[in-house]
Amino acid sequence: MCPDFHFAAWSAMASHGHRDVNLPPATWHRASSFLGEFNVFLQALGFSPWAVDKERGGHLTNFWLYCTMDRSSPAKSQVQFGCTNFAAVNPIPHAYARGKGKHLSAAVDLLENFISEVWAFQEQAQGDAEPTPAQQHDENWHILDMRQFVCPSTERIWFSCEDGSIWFMPRECGTSSLCGEWRAYRDAGCGVWWCNERSGHLFFPVAV
Q1: Which of 77, 92, 125 delimits the end of a domain?
Q2: Cα end-to-end span (Å), the chain
Q3: 99 and 79 within one domain
Q4: Residue 144: phi, psi to the nearest 5?
């Protein structure tokens, strides 16, 4: 993708309004597939969304969705959709829309309708499958913002909060922690994520 186009697209959206729509806790484990499924939803409604690649790292998806809400005013009605778990902005995995005035409101309505009528319903339809920890505990789960560190002597990886209050080191097998309190889960959509069922904490490693 042309770097100039990427900068122009970002600059055009930077001055617009921004609205978050949180994802239901039971769907957090597949949040990385949200934009792809929302894209299909928009097309089914007659919209013509298009994807724009974003830089790697720190994102649930490697693209944004753009959509024209009013074909008679394509420039003014253009909105941007994204999905992220960037804890510094909002600690809950969420979708968001960026746009102007009534077009932003219409975009948020689309997100809310999709989440309530399609996204969350799909999770309920899979109720006969084994529930994930996030499904079992729902709002009792808390997402942690943790950084990856490497022990200089052993070269072992460990994860810790900024203040060091919570940390863990994965076993070599990669499925649990040395302390035994953290377990890793793998999802086809968002890859590997960790949970501590005793404390009710979730951790999504940053994509690179």
Answers
A1: 125
A2: 19
A3: yes
A4: -100, 145
Closest Cα partner for 57 from 188, 206, 194? 206
Helix (H, G, I), strand (E, B) or coil at 80: strand
Average pLDDT along the chain: 78
Coil, strand or helix: which one is 207? coil
Q: Is 95 a domain residue?
A: yes
Q: For the whole model, what pTM was predicted?
A: 0.55
Say if residue 192's pLDDT is above 80.
no
Give the CATH number, domain containing residue 63.
3.30.310
- In the numeric block, which tokens belong to residue 188? 């086809």
Instruction: Indicate whether 104 and 164 sit together in one domain.
Output: no
Contacts 24+ apart (CB under 8 A), 77-80: 77/103, 78/12, 78/103, 79/16, 79/103, 79/104, 79/106, 79/107, 80/13, 80/16
User: Is pLDDT of 7 > 80?
Assistant: no
Q: What is the greatest pairwise CA distance in the chain? A: 63
pLDDT in tens, 113-152: 899 888 887 655 444 444 454 444 456 788 888 888 887 7
Local structure of 137: helix, strand or coil: helix
pLDDT exceeds cutoff 70 at 2: no
- Residue 143: the pLDDT is 86
Q: Which two tokens stand for residue 102?
A: 């009534």
Domain assignment present for residue 208? The answer is no
Nearest to 82 by CA among 142, 27, 18: 18
Whether 33 is covered by a domain: the verdict is yes
